[in-house]
Amino acid sequence: MQTYMKISTLSQLTIATECLQRQLEQWDISAEKKMDIRLCVMEAVQNGLLYGSAEGQPPEVHLSWQCNCDGFSFFVEDNGSGVPERQRSGNGSGVLLDEHGRGILLMHVLLDEVIFNEKGNRITGRMKW
Known about the structure:
single chain, 4 helices
């Protein structure tokens, strides 16, 4: 089952997170994995809302996720210029001292895969069971 949402405010993110939590409750996975998934999705969407809008445009973040017997995948895309390449790797090089980038580092630690498109405005995260 795949779920799709268009998010442009933090209150809509709250609704999306609640929906995600209800769906995760249907799966026999640990509370820790559920919390990790929620954190990663929230970080990706918040980044899109805060930094992912084209100049002069309101933020528009597209979120979709899919959960099945193999694992969980989510996709977040915004209408901005993208995450700078130096922040995409999650290797922590300078990130902890930067004002931005810790959410991406967390995603790399908690997920099995974190993939950006070439522009850097779409992120795919995967956790395998």
